[in-house]
Amino acid sequence: MSINHPSFGKLDDSRVIIFDTTLRDGEQSPGFSMNLAEKLRMAEALAELGVDVIEAGFPIASPGDFESVQTIAQTVKGPVICGLARSGRADVIRAGEAVAPAERKRIHTFISTSALHMKYKLRMEPEAVLAAVTDSVTLARQYTDDVEWSAEDGSRTDPDFLCRCTEAAIAAGATTINIPDTVGYALPEDLARIFTMLRARVPGAERVIFSAHNHNDLGLAVANTIAAVRAGVRQIECTINGIGERAGNAALEEIVMALRTRPDAVACKPNIVTEKILKTSRLLSTITGFDVQPNKAIVGRNAFAHESGIHQDGVLKNAATYEIMTPESVGWTKSNLVMGKHSGRAAFRDKLRALGYGEIGDNQLNDAFRRFKDLADRKKVVYDEDISALVDDEVMRDHTRIRFVALDVHAGSRVKPTASLELEIDGEAHATTATGDGPVDATFIAIRQLFPHEATLRLFSVGAVTEGTDAQARVTVRLEEDGKLVDGQGADTDTIVAAARAYVHALNKLLVKRARTEPEALSA
């Protein structure tokens, strides 16, 4: 069976479309806000990864969201660029305007269809919801031939009503039908039953692509997605590292590698360059300030680690004994190029390429190389993880209002901890000295003096990038302001300097968060 799609042409049953919503649903996670430069960098990485559709944002949410979607539509080539819209006219029009510059564009419109949502959230009767489905899809078709319609809380919707809504969307011109498990309630057999029913009962179902968007509240998002694919779904909605509202979404890397590893069970595949998975995962962690847990499938640092002697013996004899995929297949590499204080700029650039960074800007390269030389003077061995940490630290500070410049700290058991701090704020240098209960407290007080704010410190976490007493510290700082959470990260061999960098990173993200508003009943 094949389908003619306006954006992808003729698609046979072996092809599965990857719809990435890291920049939309993923960014709705507390603390995960990104500025325009970060979103654009992430969108370009997703294009390199090979995703088919990038849901770039929710244009009506704020002027910043509109600008982000429009800029990505203007700049990023390859994937379809998608904007989200509720069923109202203003939403659809705004989304249409935002994605207009894209070579290939999509509007994704949605409305709740479950009895619970219609009664308490929308306060609409079913017939009014049906009319809204038709009206929103019809309007969206005036902006693009590629229109996706979603039934929010679809997994808890009455089957007969879900069929009626799906039929109305198809009749109005929708080319993709998405049935989200919005609250992560469904089991794999539920998703299989729903999609099998829709494909069998709804007129015109054979002309559209069905899509699955699963949340991970019960830890079943990936399992539910695989079940949906086996039931005929050919678009998967997912995010890098599984980020998203509440417990997150189905993780792109897990789905893609499950499909690649088990073609015997699921005979279809995506066009993802799997060797770029780790690079993309790390970029997102850098931008958001959230590391993945060590045992995270595919991209966690322990994903291919073997400590058990029995396992180690088996892997040494034949890796397939305990590894169902190779580390190299998702971007884990081992480099023989040892870096130290005598290494030059060319070797440093080659190392960055080997670590998957590609080409970074000259200014960022110069700053990263300067910090590398400084680090090499303080450490006997500079590990790949050290280089990644300091490069990430420079890259994620690009296009920010507040920049860390210098810090001197005096502390000990017999002196009052004092921090002398210099920051660059909106291009101007500012300096101050502050005291506190400890060196970290003094440093954070100094930051508040230079950039007054009311945010509350909710988390201060310190971890080591590598082993040894000369290891770089990676600090995470979480700030809260008016219910909005942001996380920042910083790395340095001096833990207090790393803390200052992390706090400044979090502040910059908070400034982005302040500028954003959230439309009523945003979900899907």
Description of the molecule:
It contains 16 helices and 16 strands. The chain is α/β, with parallel strands linked by helices and 524 residues long. The protein folds into 4 domains: 270 residues, Aldolase class I (TIM Barrel, Alpha-Beta Barrel); 30 residues, no CATH class; 51 residues, no CATH class; 113 residues, Double Stranded RNA Binding Domain (2-Layer Sandwich). Helix 1 packs parallel to helix 2, helix 6 packs across helix 7 and helix 15 packs parallel to helix 16. The radius of gyration is 24 Å and the shape is globular. The two termini are 29 Å apart.
CATH homologous superfamily designation of the largest domain: Aldolase class I
* Whole-number total of structural domains: 4
Rg (C-alpha, Å): 24 Å
Please report the first level of CATH classification, the CATH class of the largest domain: Alpha Beta
The proportion of strand residues reads 15-25%
Specify the overall morphology: globular
CATH topology group of the largest domain: TIM Barrel
Detail the poorly predicted runs: none
On the 0 to 100 scale, the average pLDDT is: 89
- How are strands sequenced across the largest beta sheet? 3-4-5-6-7-8-9-10
Helix content: 25-40%
Instruction: Tell me the structural class.
Output: alpha/beta
Distance N to C terminus: 29 Å
The biggest beta sheet reads:
8 strands, parallel, barrel
Number of helices: 16
Number of DSSP E strands: 16
Summed up:
This protein has 524 residues and is of the alpha/beta class. The chain is built from 16 helices and 16 strands.
